[in-house]
Amino acid sequence: MSASVLSQQARDERDLRVPSSTPPPLPEEEEPPLPDEEEPVLEQSESAGSSENPQQSHQPHPQILHGKNGWSAIYEPNSSQYYYYNQSTGATTWQNPFSNINPQHDSINTNKREFYHEEDDAIDPELAHLMPSSSTDPAGFVQAKFNARTGQFNSKSWQTPEHVSAINKSRRQQAAFFDLDAFERQRNDDHMAKKAKIDELGKDSVKPKLSKDQVKMYKEQKAAKRYKTKTDWLVNDDK
């Protein structure tokens, strides 16, 4: 292989590695229609003002505008339009690739992010709907919880120190398997009934004291039961 052929291949490889400064080719689609070329007739005062500031009336368009995801907008002076070129895929088109974004949906998401950002910076907007007090309906009404006993407004209970205390953790765990409220009501009723009986009959009426003879009898019965348990295997021995 001659030296001229090798030098030509080296130049071709160098041209492939080095990006070209020329703009990419135009799209194969049909070009958009040209704008109206008829210039309006200006009055003498307006024409004089425009001649004084020619830079303001004829501002050059930027040749290349770089966007996101590899897209760039390149100005075409013949059609006075921008066409779009993707540096990653090499695709060219006259249609704006970002024109299919729904502005209403985007504004709703923006307002939602701003709302939750003001509420708590640590809350993920995509997961905030899982929290009880952050649940909202499409009409915009906020759901709130109140204490069933005191009627007090419960706001952001998951952010208070009491929410992670040992007793509240135990209550939430037991409430998943048992009717904890019914148990607490029954316990409170029994306590109030016992307290009312003490107030009515006196403290001694609830738990009467035993006499000396009764204490002696109970001790003898307990000792006899213990002795019987120890010697029962001798009486019932089959051998």
Please identify the structural class as seen in this structure.
alpha+beta
Strand order of the largest sheet: 1-2-3-4
The tally of beta strands, per DSSP, is 6
Shape: elongated
- pLDDT < 50 stretches: 15-19, 39-57, 116-120
Rg over alpha carbons:
45 Å
Count every helix, treating DSSP H or I runs of 4 or more residues as helices.
8
Taking the sheet with the most strands, its summary is: 4 strands, antiparallel
Write up what this structure looks like.
- With 239 residues, the protein is an alpha+beta fold.
- Among the domains are: 23-28 and 60-100, no CATH class; 103-159, no CATH class; 167-209.
- Helices cover 44% and strands 9% of the residues.
- It contains eight helices and six strands.
- It has helices at residues 3-17, 44-52, 54-57, 103-119, 166-175, 180-201, 203-206, 212-235; strands spanning 64-66, 71-76, 81-86, 92-93, 145-146, 153-154.
- The strands form two sheets. The chain has a four-stranded antiparallel beta sheet, with no helix packed on it.
- Strand 1 and strand 2 (71-76) form a beta hairpin.
- It is elongated.
Fold blueprint:
Layout: H1 3-17, H2 44-52, H3 54-57, E1 64-66, E2 71-76, E3 81-86, E4 92-93, H4 103-119, E5 145-146, E6 153-154, H5 166-175, H6 180-201, H7 203-206, H8 212-235
